[in-house]
Amino acid sequence: MQTLTITTPDDWHLHFRDNEMLAETVPATARCFQRAIVMPNLVPPVVNADMAIAYKQRIEAARPQGSDFTPLMTLFLTNQTTAQDIVDAKQAGVTACKLYPAGATTNSDAAVKGIEALYPVFEAMQAEGLLLLIHGEVTEHHIDIFDREKVFIDKHLSLIVNAFPKLKVVFEHITTADAAAFVKEASDFVGATITPQHLLLNRNDLLVGGVRPHNYCLPVLKRNTHQQALRDVVATGHKRFFLGTDSAPHAKHKKENACGCAGCYSAWSAIELYAEVFEQLGAIDKLEGFASHNGADFYGLPRNTTTITLEKNQWQVPEQVTLADGTDMVPFYAGQPLQWKLKSAFNPR
Ligand code: NCD
Ligand code: ZN
């Protein structure tokens, strides 16, 4: 059987949630990822070093036996965040801070209104070497949801990267040709993550033939020309684009709802979903850079020393997973076939 061995990958953007949910989400990711950037949008959000350390310990306690999976922690920026919070975070080993424009997505009501007010905080991050991770969408009601990423680039992101040329900025879960072009043209201090859903799907997969709530995430899926631009950029192996699943679990009943939650739970098939994309693109040789090298290089962290092996062996993503407390969740790509399957992980070189 055809196999593919790559350096162990990392997930540079995901949501573990908290408490009982960690018993599900942490093993799912620790299955094949060595590290992950953990989003701080809990209720209440992770806004300081103490909260990040406590959350990190809860995640570590949920690792499978023998796993040395490493969560990389982030702070949730608010209008109350101070430069001292950044200094403390750096000292506590926090890796990055997440900027959510207020109301942009799940649990982001506490987030930032008036991004310019945070410039002193960005200054401190630049000085301390913390990365700025951005959910790049404006939230003004009169801006069409499909235009919100592009407007964010023009109104905010281009100003931030100009004002802080030595601040490492990750434009998270990009969804448009505009975002891909912006990052390509930016300096080496600007990178981007791309999710499996934005590479595999477009807005037809959300809306044609009925609303498909399990394909609903934010930023929302865009038209196929944007999907194509994202596929093109990863197929070229560009070094400042890397894997970030944005795996974001919600209970089935909260997604299949008159006001369904945004987020796709992709952790259990994450690396296989990306392998599917690169296989479709005829660029499977570019998977390793995207999944295992580019992110670590951008963050200034060592590449992982072990490998994982995938085999070409068609399988089907499960229709449903059930948590210990009985909560049902529908994984992303449920019931659909994938060509590559994880065979072994964390193999010595
Ligand atoms: C995320 C979540 O559920 O926490 N949802 C999503 O659609 N991606 C939040 C986020 O990353 O925007
Ligand atoms: Zn996210």
From TrEMBL:
Reactions performed catalytically: (S)-dihydroorotate + H2O = N-carbamoyl-L-aspartate + H(+)
Protein's pathway: Pyrimidine metabolism; UMP biosynthesis via de novo pathway; (S)-dihydroorotate from bicarbonate: step 3/3
GO BP terms in the entry: 'de novo' pyrimidine nucleobase biosynthetic process; 'de novo' UMP biosynthetic process
Keyword Magnesium: no
Gene3D superfamilies: Metal-dependent hydrolases (3.20.20.140)
Active-site residues per Swiss-Prot or TrEMBL entry: D246
Binding site for substrate: H15, F16, R17, N41, H135, L218, H250, A262
Enzyme Commission number: 3.5.2.3
Protein name (Swiss-Prot/TrEMBL): Dihydroorotase
Organism the protein comes from: Alteromonas profundi
Assembly and interaction partners: Homodimer.
Cofactor(s) demanded: Zn(2+)
Residues annotated to bind Zn(2+) 1: H13, H15, K98, D246
